[in-house]
C-alpha cells in the first residue's frame, strides 16, 4: 500500500530529494555523527526517520539491510573529521 | 532626297556656289539643309498635298518642313490635309501602330510624348492591390451578429475563445502550482533518508500557468484589435 501511494505521489509530480536532516547525509561516518550529537543514540539507522535517524541499538542487518557500520567504529570520540 | 525637281536644281546651284566643304561636314550645306532631313514618304504623284492648308510661294518644300514637326509619322498626311487648318489635329490624335513600319526614323526629332512603336514585349503590370471579395464572409459589410465586443468579427470570436481556453488552463495551472509549492516536505515512508517534495512540480506548473496567462492576455489584446478593425470596417462600409 505504501508503495502504491509512493507511485501515485511520484506520478502526481512528487520528487524525492535526500533528507538533509538524516544522519546518513550528515557525515560519511554517520554512527560517529550520532554519537557526537546524541550520545544516548550513537547508531545511525537508515530505516528510521525520527531523531535524525539515530537509534540506541545497533540496527539489525536483517531488519535493515541498508545499514552499513562505519569503517571507524565508535572508539572515535573526537568527532567527525574528513 | 529631293522632293521636287525645282528643289533639286536649287540644291545643285547652292552646292556649286558654296566652297569646298571639309571631309567631316555634311555634303549639303546651305539654306536647304532642312530638305535633307525630309522623312515624308515619297508618293508616285510627287510631293504630298498641302497638309496645313497654307500655301507658300516657294513651293511644296516649306509645306514639308511645316508638316514635319507636326506629324512625325507623316503616315496620316492625307488625314491632315483633309482635316484642314481648323481641325485640331495634334500629336495626341495620332496613334502610331506597328502596321506602319519605317515611319519612325532614329534621330528624327519629334514630340517627347509621342509613343514610339517598339518590338519589346508588352509588360503586363499587375494592379497595385487585387480586388478583395467583400462578401467573403468574415469581415464584410453584411450585418454579422456577434457580441458588442467583436462587432461580428469571426477572427475576434476565435481569438476570444482561444484566449478563454488559454486563460482557463493557465488559471488552473497557476492554482495547481501554488498548491504544490505550498505543500510541505514529507519524509518518504519507504525511504526515511529521503524526502518527498512537490515544489519542482509546483514551479513547473506556475511557469506553465504564467505562460498561458500571458497568452491569454495577448490573445485578448489581439481579439480587441480585431474587434476594433471590424468596427472600423462596419463604420466605413454602410
Strand tally of chain A is 3
- The helix/strand order of chain A is HEHHEE
Strand content of chain A: 5-15%
Biggest sheet strand line-up of chain B: 1-2
Shape of chain B: rod-shaped
What integer is the average pLDDT of chain B?
Answer: 64
Helix content of chain B: 40-55%
Beta fraction of the residues of chain B?
A: under 5%
User: How many helix segments of chain B?
Assistant: 6
- Average pLDDT over all residues of chain A: 79
Domains of chain A (count): 1
Output the structural class of chain A: alpha+beta
**SS class of chain B:** mainly alpha
What is the CA-based Rg of chain B, rounded?
Answer: 43 Å
User: What topology, given as strand order, has the largest sheet of chain A?
Assistant: 2-3
Strand and helix order of chain B:
HHHHHEEH
- What low-confidence regions of chain B span 5 or more consecutive residues with pLDDT below 50? 17-23, 27-31, 43-112, 132-145
Compute the number of helices of chain A. Answer: 3
Residue ranges of chain A: pLDDT <50 for 5 or more in a row? 73-82
Largest sheet of chain A: 2 strands, antiparallel
Q: Report on the biggest sheet of chain B.
A: 2 strands, antiparallel
Detailed description of the structure:
The complex is a heterodimer of chains A (82) and B (238). Chain A is of the alpha+beta class and 82 residues long. Chain A has helices at residues 2-11, 23-26, 30-37; strands at residues 15-18, 43-44, 54-55. Mean pLDDT of chain A is 79; it is low at 73-82. Among the domains of chain B are: 5-16 and 24-77, no CATH class; 141-236. Chain B has six helices and two strands; from the N terminus they run H-H-H-H-H-E-E-H. The model of chain B is unreliable at 17-23, 27-31, 43-112 and 132-145 (pLDDT under 50). Chains A and B meet through helix 1 and strand 1 of A and strand 2 and helix 6 of B.
